């Protein structure tokens, strides 16, 4: 839609959502977002705007007249809550797109998260770092290494001047620095940065957590590129075990037989003590990327161990079960059964067969 310049409120200059150049096209759905052309409108829609289009309306429309200070304060609190929710949504979406390899689409989501973070926390806050890191990783994926260095330098400077910075944020920073040095072919430095990532992630989450596993995975990839397959193999095995354990816990809760109530009060509460762990969109995409990458590597490995193949196949089967893709869950389940037949310990085979039975008896809509 071509804008009528005379319709601009009080002569305000309208800017493109992506490049901040003069805008001539308006989103006809929310009518509060503008673009310099169709190309940027399409890029923003694919990256994030489709998800947040309607959410932007109350955040960008002119504030209504409110007679009392209390009403104005309540409205401001509501807006701040909505903006914080938008930060979480846009960051999760950006991370999900990175794991899916859609680096160009991750940029609009990261830019939106950065804008909302600046609006809520200010220009110098540590809360901006996750957005810089998504932009940095997207730039690495697009081969724009100088741009990636700029984003990561900004993130690193903010971390250095924030003594109370969490280990979680430090972990993500070092992971991105590791990816940058790996992309530049500086493998020793990449390994040093990834070791820092693993240290800080372990301090924050523990050594056997899915949020720590990414450091092991990327370190394994570096050793793989160096042809040091014995070390890479060990790291891939550890990553598989971490995801396997996490997914096994989710599937166990989803497939358990409901207990029969025997009373009220504390007895009834005990039935619901075992809470299901969940995966957000970004973690789902990470699991798909990581486990499929390890599976592809295992499939082409001439001297692979049967248990390694069985566990990664069973891990993928459980993942697709959690994602409600029963067809793929059964496909990888069957591959896991075949692979486990070459392993002397039949406990793994029994676990896989029990999983396959659950796939058969649980309706898709119940997952």
Automatic annotation (TrEMBL):
GO molecular function: zinc ion binding
Keyword Zinc appears in the UniProt entry: yes
Coiled coil start-end: none
Keyword Zinc: yes
Keywords: Metal-binding, Zinc, Zinc-finger
Residue ranges annotated for the MYND-type domain, each copy included: 16-53
Name the UniProt record assigns to this protein: MYND-type domain-containing protein
